[in-house]
Amino acid sequence: MADYLSNCVFYVCITIIYVDSEFSLIRSMLNKIPDIDDGAVNEIQSIIETPVNIVFHHNVGGVVSQCLFTWIIFDFVGAKYIYVHCILAAIFKLIPIVPV
Description:
mainly alpha, 79% helix
């Protein structure tokens, strides 16, 4: 369980760093390849980074909606420890145990 939680924290940190950073890891890797001009590097970078950013932003939106849904349902039912259930729901939505 501790390994799974550390993987969740690692994934969240990498996601936040990748989405919010101005430094482009893909650009730095492409610059190491010889004989590629800047126009091609920019085109390849946009082709790779656009879908990855869309997936990460969609993933974060899913986490928020799952957390709010859990909060509303558990509050309606009157369950105890709503915060813990919401955090667990967010973690399982972020990195699912069983692939959907």
